[in-house]
Amino acid sequence: MKICITGGAGFIGSHVADAYLALGAEVVVIDDLSTGLRRNVPRGARFVEADIRDRERVAAIFRAERFTHVNHHAAQISVPASVQDPRFDADVNVLGLLVVLEACAKSEVEKFIFISSGGTVYGVPDRLPCVEDDPLAPASPYGIAKTAGEFYTRFYGSANGLRWTALRYSNVYGPRQNPHGEAGVVAIFCSRIIAGAPVQVFGACAPGDGGCERDYVYVGDVAAANVAALAKGDGEAFNIGTSTLTRTRALLEALQAAAGRTVPVEERGPRPGDVRANSLDPSKAARGLGWRPRTTLEAGLELTFRHFAAARG
Ligand SMILES: NC(=O)c1ccc[n+]([C@@H]2O[C@H](COP(=O)([O-])OP(=O)(O)OC[C@H]3O[C@@H](n4cnc5c(N)ncnc54)[C@H](O)[C@@H]3O)[C@@H](O)[C@H]2O)c1
Q1: What is the number of other CB atoms lying within 10 angstroms of the CB of residue 89?
Q2: Of the four, 117, 118, 281, 301, which is 20 to 30 A from 124 by CA?
């Protein structure tokens, strides 16, 4: 197995690279280091610095490397940035995806794994947790691009006999996390607690209500879903989440418990585009991928906090 991971120098992609290397696969990371870091790429993986929007370069890499599997994590990851600049978001998240899909179609790639976002493709859900058959109603340019990405993946798959799976992540947290992504609050809280600085809890509708609610899934569990998707789940999209809602305030308290210290808290109202609550039902992933989340929030936050504290120390 020779696997290309786009965005493999980023937070989640680098954990997926670790998991694929542990299987004994040959791993090549393509990343432009726009938000990723060279040091995130595991030692056993080969690194190619390239922009996925560079059609000729990507085609040449695919011709030379002859990948059997492609795992597509590269993306513009910020919802607020997508609202500020929808064209840039679409440039990377739609046109960049098409460059990669085109390169797959023209080479011998057997399977393509597309990384979608369960936190945004369902928009403002009528009921929680979301299931895969719920309407897709994205409310941000980022969510629109991820939704379109799933449909483009399906199209290229059926037009070219390319097997594919889409993974709709909830809010992923863990070591090496980037503060700008969908679960960036965990990285931000870790840094603030370590610095002893005050934190802001957004999304409060009434004083003391603890802010918005999210479904936090540990990055090691997410990497395991990417391993399962190599062989299973063809032609389907799966929620990768826990179905558990956690208030931002409760998340902070759990991190403070892991740190053994508290910091001052300011509660703020919802920000534009903030969804009040979101969680994903992972039952379909249990049936189709044999995947379920295994790491408790307490254990995952403890591992994450320790990583941030060691990085500072
Ligand atoms: N973090 C979450 O909670 C979450 C939730 C749902 C979906 N996702 C998706 O997971 C994927 C990984 O996100 P992450 O949180 O690890 O973010 P990240 O920023 O750490 O990773 C994205 C990687 O893509 C690279 N990249 C960006 N534009 C590129 C380009 N034009 N060419 C080549 N490489 C490029 C970046 O340098 C970075 O290494 C993304 O597709 C994101 O949309 C993340």
Answers
A1: 25
A2: 301
**29 Cβ contact partners less than 8 Å away, ≥ 6 residues apart:** 4, 5, 6, 8, 9, 13, 14, 17, 41, 45, 46, 47, 48
What would the pLDDT profile of 17-33 be if each residue is shown by its tens digit? Answer: 999 999 999 999 999 99
Q: Is 178 in the pocket of ligand 1 (CB under 6 A)?
A: yes
Query: Would the pTM of this model clear 0.85, i.e. be above it?
Result: yes
Q: How many angstroms separate the CA atoms of 281 and 56, rounded?
A: 40
**In this structure, are 127 and 209 located in the same domain?**
no
111 and 148 in a single domain? The answer is yes
35 CA from centroid of ligand 1 (Å):
8
187 and 98 share one domain: no
Q: Which of 261-270, 289-298, 300-309 has the lowest mean pLDDT?
A: 261-270
Q: 289 in a domain, yes or no? A: no
Tell me phi and psi for residue 96, to 5 degrees: -65, -40
Query: What whole-number distance in Å separates Cα of residue 139 and Cα of residue 23?
Result: 38
Q: What is the whole-number distance in angstroms between the Cα of residue 208 and the centre of ligand 1? A: 33
pLDDT class for 270, splitting at 50, 70, 90?
confident
- What is the tens place of the pLDDT at every residue in 112-162? 999 999 999 999 999 999 999 999 999 999 999 999 999 999 999 999 999
- CATH number of the structural domain spanning residue 206: 3.90.25.10
Q: Of ligand 1's atoms, which has the minimum distance to the CA of residue 172?
A: 3
Position 173 pLDDT exceeds 80: yes
Pocket test of ligand 1: the residue of 28, 35, 54, 72 to mutate, having most ligand atoms within 8 Å of its CB, is 35
Ligand 1 pocket, residue 172 CB under 6 Å? yes
Q: Both 14 and 50 in a single domain?
A: yes
Instruction: Quote the number of domains for the chain.
Output: 2
Residue nearest ligand 1's atom 20 by CA: 10
- Ligand 1 and 89: CB distance under 6 A: no
